[in-house]
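User: Here's a protein and a ligand (nickel (II) ion). What would the complex look like?
Assistant: Let me lay out the input and then the predicted complex.
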Amino acid sequence: MLDALLFTKTPALLSSLYPACLWKVATEEKKLYLTFDDGPIPEVTPFVLDELKKYKAKATFFCIGKNVEANPGIFKRIIKEGHSIGNHTFDHMSGWKHQNKTYFANIEKGNKALGRENKARLFRPPYGKLKPSQYLALKGKYKIVMWDVLTFDFDLKVPKGLVLRNTLKHTKPGSIIVFHDSLKAQPKLEYALPRVLEHFSAKGFKFEKL
Ligand code: NI
């Protein structure tokens, strides 16, 4: 039941409303796109980088500006190890709860924290929430990246076994998978990420950055 609930939430309606957003990479090749939101933080991000390295996997990190400012060494390590960086606002602001001016200023402050590293102009809205007017203003300036597989690693009600099972079940060639390098997600990420990497590597998949 919970399985069904989780993934019927996949935003089919939103993807038709917001067609310029990237929900999945159009490919039949065995390529997957891991994304990690809300870091970088010392408790979790180095673990993620170590696991990725074991499988020669590349990924995309949607960083919160204030975490980048607090943890510049970890941010540099992400870049040095060849991963992509994207903007996730300065302090995880919800587009639904703020005026556009405030929201855009927060994204801009996030850009300052990232410096020149967001080369592909990637942006992921916190909570996946954007007002239509925000979408219209941002879609020309950024590649707005959503997902087709939400792991629910952040949800305290979802056990780690279910996080893993659902991720394995719903991932397809070209999938964009959301994990979180956050304290809330840590126990489930530490369980699921190594198993996802192992499972799909054994099946011949490659993990690429956006
Ligand atoms: Ni987030």
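Summary: Residues 9 and 101 are 29 Å apart (CA to CA).
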